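Quick one: structure tokens for this chain, please?
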Amino acid sequence: MKKIISGIQPSGRPSLGNYLGAIKPQVSMQNEADVTYFIADLHAITVRQEPADLKRRTFEVAAWYLACGLNPEKATLFIQSHVPAHAQLGWILNTFTQMGELERMTQYKDKSKRHSSNINVGLFGYPVLQAADILLHDIDAVPVGEDQKQHIEITRDIATRFNNHYTAGKEGAKPIFVVPEAMLPKAGARVRDLQNPESKMSKSIDGKGTIFMEEDLKTIAKKIKSAVTDSGSEVIYDKENKAGVSNLLEIYAVTKGMSIENAVSDFNGKGYGDFKSAVADAVVAELEPTQARFKELMKDKTELSMILKKGADKANIQAERTLAKVMKKVGFVPPIV
């Protein structure tokens, strides 16, 4: 099976947009590939964090993924800092990465502007640690959006540079790293703000236009029924002229697991009132068991902690195997046992 990895930073509160657009399609990959998910707490500290908040959010991210259907018997789930080889390989790969490459990274430029009071070395070297995250686990493909493609490109460059340095001209020498491909994840809903459908639903903006995963179900239904539509009455999919209606149709279709065309046909001859009520009912039906499972995992973290430990144990085996190969190639003296 193709090996895939996905890292999730423990930041913010997950919204319905995060769930339908990223979490749900990512979790579905476990049925067709060997998938590794990790909570990227090492990456998170490139921006100052409150320790208690970071710890809580790390558990919450894991709990949400499990509540949304991640099966630890099919996929591997662990906390990044529980696998020390990520940081160890990151340091080695720093020596195979050029300053100019990192200076060109778009995300570094953007984050430097947003966090101008804390432009730290970790923020600058973020892509190298991300390369280590991927290369440690012999990953074939990484699901990314447009804003992350550059990170996969530099990972490929680092892997190729390392492989070439230690195998060029050496007959029979095998490359250490699998050079990964970028892959577009399965399309989820591009959920827009319920009050301003011209903008995406943001987990950092609290208001009537954003639905957070942990919100009271009655509040969620109320927000959907209050969503902006337009002055017409026909339920059709037209993102340019009916952005609000189209947004709700996408939410309904992805939640119900159907095409947009079938979603539209469900509302032939029906008005906005019936339409919004049906969307609200679909979302509530989807989130009710998810919320219940999330609360169960967070109330008593014994099960959650054991799943994360099991995932880290499994990830450490693969990571240490790769790291040992790298250290041998570099010429480091192996640990004395």
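The chain has a mean pLDDT of 91.
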